[in-house]
Amino acid sequence: MNKDNGFPYDGANGDGDGDESADAPLEAAADALLEEELRQAAAVLDPVPDFLRQLALEAYALHDLDARIAELTFDSLVDALPVRGVTDAPRMLTFRAGALTVDVEVTGEGLIGQVLPPGSARIEVLGGPGAARPVAVDSLGRFLSDDPPRGPFALRLRTGTEVIVTEWLRA
């Protein structure tokens, strides 16, 4: 008997000897079973929407451990002085990664930009649940996309030796 409460067991695991290690495998199995039942209930009662699952998969697929992040060094929404009478000025962005600079103008019609120093590069516009959209770059580093970004977007540049990804911004 337990002298504190008068019951024959000490209350640790119900067998009176205080050894909890014997019940550990049973408790782990019960926890795993409960977790699986909760997963199944959540899948039925509150399923993850397909578009959100696809977005998560694409976000993970865009993760590139070797990519360098291009820092935003100029944003006309923050850094530029307003011009009187101009109501729909395009957004100007400048990204920098080492010696590489990317200037981008975001308009309602799309993106216009240039990679400096000029050289061979491939650019993809990343954004939302859609696939990355490739953008052609000419020999002077200029590029044009007639599809304006909707919502958050980033650029991924592939030069001959490295991958550079810009910060994500809202269009």
Structure characterization notes:
With 171 residues, this protein is of the alpha+beta class. Helices cover 23% and strands 34% of the residues. It contains 3 helices and 10 strands. The chain has helices at residues 24-45, 50-62, 76-79; strands at 68-75, 91-97, 100-107, 110-116, 121-127, 133-135, 142-145, 152-159, 163-166, 169-170. Strands 1, 2, 3, 4, 5, 6, 7, 8, 9 and 10 form a 10-stranded mixed beta sheet that branches. The chain is elongated, with a radius of gyration of 28 Å. The termini are far apart. The mean pLDDT is 80.
Low-confidence stretches: none
Structural class: alpha+beta
Average pLDDT, rounded to a whole number, is: 80
The total count of helices amounts to 3
* H/E topology pattern: HHEHEEEEEEEEE
The overall strand count is 10
The biggest beta sheet reads: 10 strands, mixed
Beta-strand content estimate: 25-35%
Overall, the morphology is elongated
